[in-house]
Structure formats: structure tokens, C-alpha cells
Amino acid sequence: MRTFLLLVGWLLLALPTSATIRLHTLFTDHMVLQQQHRVPFAGTASPNEQITVRCSWLNEAMTTKADAEGHWQVNFTTPQATFTPQTIEIQGANEELTLSDILIGEVWLCAGQSNMQMTLRGFPSQPVEGGLEEIAQAATYKKLRLFHVPAKYAETRQDHCKGEWTHSTPATASTFTAVGFVFGSRLSEAMDVPVGIISSAYGGSRIESWMDEATLAQFDKKDYIPKADKPYRDPVKIYNAMIAPIEGFPLAGVVWLQGESNRRNAYVYADMLRAMMGLWRTQWQQPSLPFIICHIAPLPYNSIGELGGARVQEAQWQVTRTDKAAYLVGTSDIGDEKMVHYPKKRVVGERVLYSAMANVYKVEGIPTSGPTLDKVTFEKGKAIVRFAHAERGLTPINQPIRCFELAGEDLKFYHAEAKIGKDRATVEVKAKEVAEPRYVRYAFTNWHQTNLADVYGLPAIPFRTDSIRYARPKLY
């Protein structure tokens, strides 16, 4: 019953006097369905009309009856991934629909704000490196299908969003999320399965906009802006228009790239991200739905001294440390000092691929993460920082390591010299101003361009060992 009520939100419009069979927008020709998964297939018809559904991969048809308002639903299970195009026939009393060219494979949702929304063709005067190459080759990805949820906001929960599944072509790829396209195209090749990417992103949005009222009610109104300067920044409104309509369409996972707009309330971002993830997992009825969270990229933002960006990055790291189905993609080395919409989207998409392969699909031989803090010891005026995920050593061994800072008991941080230790898994850090170091920071700044990485080129994740609590800024 709960599933049926959830999927009532998938229905298109109020039925006309002479109703016809209608399906939610995500059920179209060319779609990809998540393999080996239960799919709630719903639509509308005339009240009390009998509906028969035949899937080409199933031996028997399914029959149901529309309720008094015309709502109907059947549930079917998908087979293993297949490149053979499938069909679904829906037959009513006086009408028959056929969905064709359906593939069974892996479906991912790519969501967030403008750095996820940024398309392969870039924004005006803001390019994506390698974007034209990706666009030109788009038609070669025969196993990739794309669905774009238009950027909308709404005061109330919406039942429908516009859009359709399309093949990958230069025309469709050029206006599709760059991160999502690169991830999807590489995943289809690496895993040799059909892949469907759903893009749902809105530039400038805050995380409060991506959750429903009940979830947001967990938070103190002093911790977010209840009425923002622009409607799309208001709480709940993007969820209403861009997530509610697609809930329940089975997914392999979510790629999340958002946080720049939450710098002022970074202190609550970790809790809000956990709450949003919990909401989506509940609404999708997938309690272990994987989330691959992309670090927001470094940028000076408002001023060098303002640490909102660093604290959002810290919050993202905290979430992935405590959630067994959440994974972090580092970006500390690829920002652009002058551009929040950094050009290296192809790098991000490929790192998302590595994370998905290692963490979600359990492919051996792929690292699950870049280097992360393991422990710190202090001896002879130095900090010895040991990293996990550095089994084959840290790099570069012949250059100074950037972005480390040290402090003593006074918590005054100074730029530090750093080099990789003889065991290749530690970094030795010292600063002439700090005779007895007690705290160490790595890239805990808004702007940084790190060079510490593993042998695969995955950047070390920024961290700090102090617990300084920063004043909560006035939000409104």
C-alpha cells in the first residue's frame, strides 16, 4: 500500500472525461531499467479500467484494475543487464501502448548545484576541458542513455516533470551534465553494461532546497534561511519539483555535487546531508542506496580568511566516514582560483567512476579512496602524519608537499614544510615558528592546490586535528 501511495506522485495530470492510458515521464522509449530490481510500474487510465502489462523478458502478463480515480500499478522484476532491446506493452479496454528500445542495466542519479549542472559545452565564457572531444565522441557510446530533469522549483510537491530518455549523441551530450556524462559513458564501457544517467541539478541551490518539509523540520530555523533572496534557494522547493516526481524509479546510486551555497551554515551541513540522504533512501525504498559525494572544489570565495568552503569539505568527509554506503571523491588538486565552475569536470567524472567501481561494484584492483588521515604523532618538533589508502606509497617523493600547517598549544597556525617519509606512507611536517607542534592541518583552507596523492593520482583528502569551533554567522 505504501508503494502505491508513493507512486501516486508519478501520475501525470488529472484525467480528462475520456481518459487514456498515461505513464510517468520516466517510463518512455529508450529508457534504462535497473537490473535485477523490483520496478513499481504505475500510470493512470479510466476509473476501474482493467490494465494488462506484458514485459518482453517475462513469460506471463500482469493484470490489474485502476481504482476509482484511475490510478493503477503493477510490480515486475528486471533480469540481468542485457543489450537486447526490450519492450513493455500496456493494454487497456480500448487502447494499447508499447514502450520500445528498453535496455536493462545500471541507473544513476546525478544531482546537486551548478558544478553538477555544468554541461559539456560549458557555461558562457566558462569552458569544460575536453568538452568538445566528449561531445564529438558521444554517439560512440551505444550503451548510454540520458534523462534530464529540467531545473524547476515549486511551492508544492509535484507529480510530474518533463523530459524523455534519449540516446547519447553530440546534440544530447552537449547540453547534459559534464560530470554525469563522463561518469556514465566510462561506466558503460568499464562494466560492459547499459547505463542510464538521470540529471537533476540546479545552480546556486542550497541543500535545504533538496529535502521535504518533514525532514527540514528536524533543524532549528536559525540554522537555515527560511525565505531566501531567490525562490530556488528556498527550502523544499527544488525537492518538490525535481526529486519528488522521480522518487521510486530504481537506482544503482546517487552522485552528489553540492555545497558551495552552504558555506555560511557549514556547521550544520553534515547533519543536513545525512538527513537528505536518509529521506531519499526512504522515498526510494532503498535503505542502502549508495551516495558518491564529490568534494566542492577549492576557491577563495568571499575572502581568504573565511573558512566556509573548508568546513563544507570537512562536513562532506565526516559524512562519508560514518555512512557505510557513502563515498568521497577528492577535488583538492583541480580547482580554479578565479572560477567556481572549474573546468576539470572530466577528472571529476572519471574519479566518480573509480569510486563506483571500487566501492559499489567491488571491482578488485581499483583503489577505494585517495589517501586519508590515519593518525598523527608528534616528536622532535615535527608532526608525523600517517595516511591510510597509501599502500603503494605517497607522491611526489622528490618535491616539497604543499598545504600543511602546524600549531602549538596556542592554536596559531603557520605554514609548514612537509616531505614524504622513508616509509612512503607518512609525511613529516615542521614549521620554524612552532617548536612544539600539537595540531596539524592539511589543505584546511578555502583555496588550495594540493600535490599530495597516491601513485594513481588520487589526491589526499584535506583534514585538521584541532577542534576549533567557529562562530555561527548571522544568516538573515
Query: Taking all residues together, what is the mean pLDDT?
Result: 94
Helical content stands at: 10-25%
Biggest beta sheet summary: 11 strands, mixed
* Approximate strand percentage: 25-35%
CATH architecture name of the largest domain: 3-Layer(aba) Sandwich
Provide the gyration radius in Å. Answer: 24 Å
**Residue ranges: pLDDT <50 for 5 or more in a row?**
1-18
SS-based structural class?
alpha+beta
The number of distinct helices, counting runs of at least 4 residues, comes to: 10
Query: According to CATH, what is the class of the largest domain?
Result: Alpha Beta
Distance between the termini: 42 Å
Tell me the count of domains: 3
Provide keyphrases for this structure:
alpha+beta; 26% strand; Rossmann fold; 11-stranded mixed beta sheet; 4-stranded antiparallel beta sheet; Immunoglobulin-like; 3 domains; 476 residues; disordered N terminus
Give a structural overview.
With 476 residues, the chain is an alpha+beta fold. Helices cover 20% and strands 26% of the residues. The chain contains 10 helices and 24 strands. It has helices at 2-8, 114-117, 131-136, 170-174, 178-191, 213-216, 237-243, 269-284, 308-322, 345-360; strands at 22-23, 32-34, 38-44, 50-55, 62-65, 71-77, 82-91, 96-112, 144-148, 166-167, 195-201, 253-257, 291-294, 326-329, 372-379, 382-388, 394-395, 404-407, 414-415, 417-420, 426-430, 439-442, 453-454, 463-464. The strands form 5 sheets. Strands 2, 4, 5, 7, 8, 9, 10, 11, 12, 13 and 14 form an 11-stranded mixed β-sheet that branches. Strands 15-16-21-20 form a 4-stranded antiparallel β-sheet, with no helix packed on it. A 4-stranded antiparallel β-sheet has the order 19-18-22-24, with no helix packed on it. α5 (178-191) crosses α10 (345-360). The longest helix is centred in the middle third of the chain and has 16 residues, at 269-284. The chain is elongated, with a radius of gyration of 24 Å.
